[in-house]
Amino acid sequence: MAVTCGLDFERTISASSLDTRRVIDEAVRELGFEITADQLTRIEAKRGGMLGYSLLMKKQMPVLACSTYRPPAPAVC
User: Fold this and answer.
1) What is the Cα–Cα distance from 12 to 50, expressed in whole angstroms?
2) Distance separating alpha carbons of residues 25 and 43, to the nearest angstrom
3) What are the pLDDT digits (tens) for 31-74?
4) Does the pTM exceed 0.85?
5) Which of 15, 31, 44, 72 has most Cβ atoms within 10 angstroms of its Cβ?
6) What are phi and psi of 11, to 5 degrees?
7) How far apart are CA 23 and CA 42, in angstroms?
């Protein structure tokens, strides 16, 4: 049995996208994720697998995390 759950949110912060990307990359790695795609505007990472899922191991359940970075929209006058 496979279950898919999505969580989507957007945040705007006052920092450069490169600094933000670096900090999120480090945090994701510290949480035990393996980076699977590392591009300038997107990071994808996964953790766990089907073995953890079948044994109901909370920290080994399959999780995919995607993070997209873009510059702020120009101000409209």
Assistant:
1) 34
2) 8
3) 889 999 988 888 899 887 766 566 666 666 778 888 888 777 77
4) no
5) 44
6) -130, 140
7) 13
